Amino acid sequence: xxxxxxxxxxxxxxxxxxxxxMRRNGNYEIVGALTTVTETFGRVSxxxxxxxxxxxxxxxxxxxxxRVPIPYPCxxxxxxxxxxxxxxxxxxxxxxxxxxxxxxxxDVRRYREEKLAGTGIAPVFPLWGRPTDTLARAxxxxxxxxxxxxxxxxxxxxxxxxxxxxxxxxxxxxxxxxPCGEKGEFHTFVAAGPMLKRRIPIAIGELVERDxxxxxxxxxxxxxxA
Length: 226
Description:
The protein has helices at 13-25, 51-61, 76-92, 106-116, 132-141, 167-172, and strands spanning 3-8, 28-38, 43-44, 65-70, 95-99, 122-124, 145-152, 186-192, 202-210, 213-220.
């Protein structure tokens, strides 16, 4: 009997690729997606993705949504209390692991490990330590179609917002930028890939700047006719 797991789901490429790899190895039954949503805006935290897009994405991924609402701004103690409540519910339902798409930020990994210590739920990091230039190219070549939904304007020009992550974009990244955006350079939304049963049609909407970030309002587009 496989262990039950949740995947920490941001709507972006790293969590999506982690899902893809964990499904391929078959060691876990992934029963839901844990997503932090900023209730003030009704959007995925940090990424700024609308909840209807998140719902469509999780339906295409075959994942039960586990929504963790937080306010804006969100004090750390509020975030931790709400996440702890969601994890306690998951544990009560038989979940024993949470899968994360983290790549190399040791402080982030350490934080997750410390918060899960003693809960009966163990963290899993299937992408940890992979060279991010190789990983980004593997995602693109593997059919992941992803959009830059949010960029840090201190690290990237605003012209990157809303673009698809492809080989041309990787070639244009500043030398200081991580190819997977792991240092916060950008956050993404996955519209298609091997982890989704169908493509999510996307339209590029308004560009908004807030707190040093640029957010593109991705909306549901019109699906191409078969």
